[in-house]
Design goal:
Helices cover 55% and strands 0% of the residues. It is mainly α. It has a domain at 60-150: Four Helix Bundle (Hemerythrin (Met), subunit A) (Up-down Bundle). The chain is globular and about 60 Å long. Bound molecules: flavin-adenine dinucleotide. Flavin-adenine dinucleotide (FAD) binds at residues 53-54, 57-58, 60-61, 65, 94, 98-99, 102-103, 125, 128-129, 131-132, 135, 140, 145, 148. Residues 53-54, 57-58, 60-61, 65, 94, 98-99, 102-103, 125, 128-129, 131-132, 135, 140, 145, 148 line the site of flavin-adenine dinucleotide.
Length: 159
């Protein structure tokens, strides 16, 4: 068993907690940590713990889709190039390593479409759907992406 600290941002909370315990047990035997404060999902009260893979993913998608939603309709060459660089750089530093590697692969065969807000938002929707498919989650209807991330639903439920 490796005693390397498990990467919380690379796995769901249950797996991380299990690995953390294994590492802890291997280092300290069965001795209990005296100052351990349980977090909210352990039945405790904290809501300010480090993000696990799913929390990080959900918040990050929110940021990425919102950024795409507010990208210019007619970007200049500099903006197109900066947005392209952003996604390539982002994919090197995203803290969940399996997610980052997956995104790097996706970028190779589907580079960012930076020609307009519509193009970028649709491209990102497809990228996210590839991850959804891999994880067995339902695909999102990309026609609705601006309602979801910019305008709110047509029925007024976000107004
Ligand atoms: C770049 C990236 C790569 C990732 N790769 C992996 C991976 O390889 N393995 C892994 O286990 N996890 C990965 N994740 C995390 C994973 O995608 C989810 O974020 C995580 O499982 C939590 O899922 P969720 O059900 O909260 O919804 P999320 O998938 O986080 O979605 C958040 C919200 O986005 C909206 N949405 C869903 N699909 C789309 C779409 N196609 N277009 C627009 N809006 C949409 C929905 O309203 C949804 O509620 C990755 C995250 C990111 C940001």
């Amino acid at each position: 068993m490796s005693s390397e600290k498990p990467c919380r941002a690379c796995m769901d909370f249950r797996t991380w907690a299990k690995r953390q315990k294994e590492v802890y047990d291997s280092e300290k035997g069965a001795q209990k940590k005296q100052d351990q404060t349980p977090n909210a999902r352990n039945g405790g009260t904290r809501d300010d713990c480090p993000l696990d893979k799913d929390e990080l993913g959900s918040k990050t998608w929110g940021f990425l889709h919102t950024m795409a939603a507010y990208y210019p309709d007619q970007p200049n060459e500099r903006q197109k190039s900066d947005m392209n660089s952003f996604f390539h750089t982002f994919s090197k530093f995203y803290p969940c390593n399996v997610c980052a590697e997956d995104l790097q692969e996706q970028l190779k065969h589907s580079p960012p479409e930076t020609g307009s807000q519509e193009k970028l938002s649709q491209w990102l929707c497809r990228i996210h759907n590839e991850v959804n498919k891999k994880l067995g989650k339902p695909e999102f209807d990309c026609k609705l992406v601006n309602q979801r991330w910019r305008d709110g639903w047509l029925d007024g439920s976000c107004d």
